[in-house]
Amino acid sequence: MPGGPYCRPKHWKRNTAIAMAGVFLLCIPIAMISVQLEQRPHMPVRPIPSQLWCKNFGKKDY
After folding, report:
1. Residue 52 resides in a domain
2. Is residue 10 part of a domain?
3. The domain containing residue 35 runs over which residues?
4. Which end of the chain, N or C, is surrounded by fewer C-beta atoms within 10 Å?
């Protein structure tokens, strides 16, 4: 195995931080579009987290 099982690449912390920032910046627009497009034809039986930030949910009529 190149590098062996105890390989420690140079600047691994910086590279990991850059990769995580890239993933985070990529996921934010996807989540915002998902919130805008979310629709539910029926109200959920139990509360779900997306009801807190999604504006497409109405009030539940009893």
Report:
1. yes
2. no
3. 15-39+48-61
4. C
pLDDT score for 23: 97
Tokens of residue 47, six digits: 């509360």
Could you list the mean pLDDT of each consecutive 10-residue stretch along the chain, which spans 62 residues?
70 93 96 84 82 69 46
Place of tokens 């009801």: 51
Residue 31 forms part of a structural domain? yes
Total domain count for the chain?
1
Are 54 and 36 in contact by the 8 Å Cβ rule? The answer is no
pTM of the predicted model, to two decimals? 0.59
